[in-house]
Amino acid sequence: MIKRKTAIGYKTEEKTVMRGYELSELAEEGYSFYDAMFILYQGRIPTSITTLDWHKSCISLVKIKTGERLDERAGQDH
Q: pLDDT truncated to tens, each residue of the chain (78 aa)?
């Protein structure tokens, strides 16, 4: 039997809950991984306006972590 609980969520065999939202229900409703990360950090469902900004921020962070952003900048300088 799997049971884990933290200050931000918990997991049982049936469900995983984060900030009061069941992750499988969010996925069924069409929320993305980025939306789940927004809920993790903000503690609320994102609006359509915040979703777009949040997705752009997450993509920028991924590019920075993978070095893609640095490669783009280097190409612009030459």
A: 566 667 788 888 899 999 999 999 999 998 888 888 888 888 888 876 666 676 677 777 667 666 665 555 555 544
Structural domain for 21, as ranges: 4-77
Q: Round the CA-based radius of gyration of the chain to a whole number and report it.
A: 17
Q: Are 17 and 9 in contact (CB under 8 A)?
A: yes
Question: CA–CA separation, 51 vs 60, rounded Å?
Answer: 14
Per the structure, how many domains does the chain have? Answer: 1
Q: How far is CA 78 from CA 4, 60, 63, 67, in A?
A: 52, 22, 20, 17
Q: What pTM value is reported for the model?
A: 0.57
The Cα–Cα gap between 35 and 21 comes to 12
